[in-house]
Amino acid sequence: MAEKRKQYDSDTKDLAAEAYLLTGSPTEVGRALNIPTTNVHDWGNKEKVETDRAIEEGSSIAAQLKDERMKKKIILIEKGYRLASQLLDLLTTKASEAKFKDIAIGFGIIMEKTLLASGEATARTESSKTVSREDMLNAARDALDEKIGKGKGKTA
Fold it and tell me: With a threshold of 0.90, does the pTM exceed it?
């Protein structure tokens, strides 16, 4: 027999949706509220779409709600930076009492979540390869030859 799906009341859905829209992390919200991530993601996206649609239709309440979300998000980001700064200050005094690994993990989590909330990159991948002018010209010539070669014998 199929397992009955858990039903959530509208207050729980609203709380999860708002928390997701503020933090940007359905995983963290789901874990905190013991709700599947997919539910949190779906409820948050539905709320965002409904708010955006209401704004387009001229709803001042929806616009105020969106502004309020942005203000709360800014406050959350500022608190994250302050907390990270406080952890750095404590690092010198508490380093002897805590394991370096624990301090590093805590600091890393706070910084990553703060950067994520502020729209900054949390990972960076870079690659660079020096290509000579001659190599670029040869590659362009090969591509052109291939295109011309493929075009031979074809009729429009």
Answer: no
